[in-house]
Structures are given as structure tokens and as C-alpha cells.
Amino acid sequence: MKKDIILCGVGGQGILSIATIIGEAAMQAGLQIKQAEVHGMSQRGGDVQSHLRISSEPIYSDLIPLGGADVIISMEPMEALRYVPYLKADGWVVTSSVPFVNIPNYPADTDIQAALAQLPHVVSIDIDQLAKDSGVPRSANMVLLGAAAQAIGIGYEQLASAIGHVFARKGEAVVGANLRALALGKQSSGL
Amino acid sequence: MKKLLLGDEAIAQGAIDAGLSGVYAYPGTPSTEITEYIQHNPLATERGLHSRWCTNEKTAMEAALGMSFMGKRAMVCMKHVGLNVCADPFVNSAMTGVNGGVVVVVADDPSMHSSQDEQDSRFYGKFAMLPVFEPASQQEAYDMMAAAFDYSERQQLPVLMRVTTRMAHSRAVVSTCEAARPENPLNYDAQAANWVLLPANARRRNDKVTAQQAQLEADAVASPYNIYSVPAVAQPPYALGVLASGIACNYVQEALQMAGADGMLPMLKVSQYPLPKALVRRLLGDCERVLIVEEGQPFIEEQVRGVAESNHILGRLTGELPRTGELTPDVVGQALQRAGAPWATASAATPDTPLVVPRPPALCQGCGHRDVYAALNEVLREYEHPRVFGDIGCYTLGFLPPYRAIHSCVDMGASITMAKGAADAGQWPAVAVIGDSTFTHSGMTGLLDAVNEGTDITVIISDNLTTAMTGGQDSAGTNKYEAICRGLGVPDEHLHVVVPLPKNMAEITRIIRDEINYHGVSVIIPRRECIQTLKRHAKKQREQ
User: Does domain A2-189 have CATH number 3.40.920.10?
Assistant: First the structure.
């Protein structure tokens, strides 16, 4: 088993929490993990990404080679497109459909949707609306993780158990909200 | 015990488990998480290990030497440019030697993700004649800490531990030991004759440390971290071999794995210096050509090529690898191909999408620095050639649109001294913009120079009550800025505190204008908490 995952978004959108959950689930499953993160200057509203590699075999590089990613999980649609050179020819993109516009020259939404449509396997979801409608507005990132669950090669139950473990010290309410968000994402992905 | 740790965290855990008594550090990407981990570690808290932030890297290095003098184990952590700040005590620490073990952890930042330059700290190790460790994995980083402290005490020299961004900020599963070693007791073995660096003492120590180099190199040849491996099936001479250091080894292994060529090339992995020349000679003797792959500058490559410039030594200096910038599995794979490895490596990448535009970092909405720059720009519009000297921190982003407000950013504290030099040259208005933490790090001494000469500069200490850029660490001078400026001789009538908010714009612009028109040193302190730490504090309060 080997999955190379690019997590991306805009600084502050919570991609590192997604990485933490996948990493915890992978560790519980006895898998090898390497996860390169971005800290520092880029976190101030700039683009951020994390290379997450999980495998049953030893992993050498902390970075994923170009054309090597099985899946891109993105909190923002243009950011998903930024990392397309890393995607395998038949790789998956699971992304939020909601643009985060904090630059003056942000491209037209229709162009972004058209570029995404060129890719073979894309799941694009309004995770913010879904999370809000279901009363878990602060767990949009877990909705996205739920939507990507099928593509990352770790069982849904293992992800749920990792959420329980990672958020335990924040109390039952937080764990519950994140679990609801995860289930919501899984349902809405159609996978 | 298995833990999922950042490289930085593995180093911190390794140090605690090795019986550390204190970490001394100034925040700097990508090294910050080492000290933060120790600050939040239960055993470190229970043992009362020193972990409070220092004012700068020089005070940190010196305090660690003091702890070592008393027999205890101390660690110093910084980013690569921090080593410039503490170069004086660092280089001299080879002359004093150590009593308790000292490990200086320096995180380099190739490709300059969050830095002004790409300097490679291994040169400092060689320069100071100190052993250097360079881990290739998070597990090795953990294991090396105990080894480095033991080695430091055995050789009575500090050890430089060099990591780079990808090691510092990448997570992996690390096996840690069950019980931490006890701290060293106080001991009084430090000999004043070694620690008082009068020329007579320093000469004796210099002879000793110079003579020690042969032993350090022999130890590097025998080190379990320096491994020469040859293909199981083939015999020398090999057409191509690889010498890779630290995490560069991983990219070579990745490229081999992708090509289904695991173990097909002879490879010398170097993770302990001085350069183990005997191992390098074996590799050179076994191979027709050798590709040298190292993260950072061509430190090993220059030593191996020397002036003979052998055609058989390939790397950054010969164009197989890019001359600058961080390594990736792709550039290493391409380099192996160029060097004649007989298999293809790169897989087909999907092309770039042209409509994607850059998303540079920006000052947060609601940040006080924004109001400072808005006010400054409004006033400076009235002058023909204003010059604003910036500094290191979030407010360096004031260079970017919409403010485009600063004309320089060089190193910690340079805003004040550069404004002074410009004023000495006849520039007016000369304005310095510096953050609170940067001011206490390296700005105070420059302000004293300006006060002593009555230089015509206006200094803005934009105080957000934290070290914001690196994630909100405590700032050494919080609540002391007026007192510090007064103590350095800034007159009360030219020392102002304002609250940077849009509603105060009239007052702030008036003060800036008046102080520019005053021909002497004035200091304006706009003070409002960082919006990020403010949110965090509010959240914490809600949770309680």
C-alpha cells in the first residue's frame, strides 16, 4: 500500500489538521509516514501545501516527485490547480469549490471550473455551505477529508478513530462535530 | 514508544531524553519548533529545564556555554542566519571547549522559504574546527542527539547539528526510548585556564583543538552515520557512484526506487563531519565517476574536487545539479540521468495550469502594522525623497502592495543603523521601521549610536507585543520599550506611544510629521497586540 497525497489551501484554512488526522490514522494502521509541512512566512494568507506520503514500505523522500501524487486534497479550487503538476495521470482531485479571494488578480470562477473539468477525476464540493447547514461550521476541513476518504487508501473507520483520538482533549462536543463533518463529506462525495 | 514527530520535535525529544538541562534559543524559521516542543513537554516542565526564549542567538550561545561550564548539558537552537549573530561565541567555544555537552542546532533554509540567504552552516563547523552532524531522517535526528551530547563530552567540544527546512518541518514516525537519562549533576571540573581566552591560554587550546582534528576525522570514518554501501551483484570499477549527505540521501534512494534500481549504485552517505576522507577515497577508487548530492552549498563537492577539477567529480559545480536551491526528488533524478545512470526516473507530470496566479503572503486584516504603514505613507507623500529602512519580521511585508513602504531589509536590527548611515550621508527624512522583538534582538545598540551622535532619524518601533512572524513567541522587551529608549538617552519629548488604529490616524500622522521635522533622534512606538495572538488569547479565555 502506498499513497502520495498533496494537501493544499490558503494559510489558516486548516490543512495541517487534515494532515494530522491522516497521519494519526496511518500510524495506528502501522504504516510508514512522511509529511512535509510549510511553516513561517507563507502562513500569512499565502498559498500553503503539505506533502503527505503513507506506505507499508519504507519511504525515502519527504517530498513527492512531480507526477507522483495519487490525490490532491485542496481547501480552495485555484490552489488545487497550482499542484496539478504533482498529480499522476489518473490521480484524483478532491477540492472545496469555494474560491478564497485575497488577491486582486484572482481568475474567473468559470475558468477555474473549466480547468478542473479537464482533469480525469474531480470531486468539487461546497464544503463551507455543507458544514454550515449541518451545524458544524468550523469543521469544513473534516467535510473535505470525508469526501477524500475513499481516495486516500485508509479506512473510514480508522479516520474516525483518529479524529476521536486527536480531538479528545478538546471535549466530546468537538469530537462529535468533526465526526459528523467527516460523515457528511463521505456521503456528499458520491464515492 | 512510537511518536509522529517533526524533525524539529525529534531533535527536542532526543535532547530531553539525553539528559538536557537547558535549551537557549531565539525563534527563527525553520528552527522554532525545537524550543516550543521543550516548552510544552511534561518531563521538561517537571524537571524545570530552561526553555525560555533568549533576546538573541548570541545571548543564547553564551548562556549555554555557562551551563556547560557548570557541567550540565545545554542545547542552542537557531536558524542559519542566527549563527552569524552568535558567530563570536560559537567560534570561540571551540577554544574554551565544553564541560557538560553542548549541541548547537542550526536549521538552514535552502531555497530561502523564509530567509534572506542560503548560507550553509557546515562551513561554520569547519571554520570553527568543530564536529558536525547532519541527520538523514527524523529517526536519525532523534538518535543523534544522545550521540552528539556524548561525543561533545568525550571530545570536550561543542557539536554542530545541521538540519535543513525539509528535515525540520517534515513529520515521520520516530521510536523513542522509554526513559530519559538523568541530567548531569553540577560539577566543578571546568578549568579556568581553558575558559579564560587570554592569548597564552587560547594558543595552547588552539594547538590542542588543531591536533584533535585527526581524531575527529577518524571518528567520522568509523561513524555509524557514515555508511558506504556497494551493489551486492556487481564488482568495481563501477561506472557511477554517489556521495550524498543528510537528507540528500533520501532523494537518491527515492530516484533509485522509482526506477526499480534499489541498491544498484555504490553510495557513500555522509552524516558526520569532518569529511571522512578515507571513505571518500574508497568511493573514488571504486568508481569512474562520482555524483555528489548535498542539500545547500557544494561544501563536500569543493573539498573533493579541490583545484584539480577532476572531470570525474560531478554535482552542483558541473551543472548536473542546479547551482542553488533546495533539492527535490525530481532534480536529483535528473542529475542521476545526466551523470549517466542507465535508467529513466521522472514520471510524466501533468502540465502547469496557466491561469493559476501567485498568492503571496500578506499582513493580516486588522494588523496594527497596516495602520502604521498607512500613516507613514500619508506623511511621507509630502517629501520628495523619503527613505524608509525596514527590518526582519511580518512588517517586511510592507514592501509589497498596497503599501510599498520600505526601501531596505537586510538583517536583524539593520533598520536603525542603516537609517543612521543614510542620515550621515545627508538623507532626510530617514525613517527606521523595526518590530519590538527585533529591536531588543539587535536594534538597541544601533539606537545608542544614533543618540550619541544626535543623528537626524525617526525610529518607529512597531510593537505588537510578540514575535509574530515565527508564530507568536514571547518578546523579550514587552512592557520595557519606553524605559529602554529613555535609558539609551532618547528625550521624553521625542518618545511617543500611539495606538495604531484607523480612528487615531490624525494623531499618528501629526506625531510622525512633527518628529521628522525635529532634527535629532525620535522614537515612536505604535503599540497594539498582534491580531493572531489576540485571537488565540480570546479563544483560550473562552475555553477556561
Answer: yes
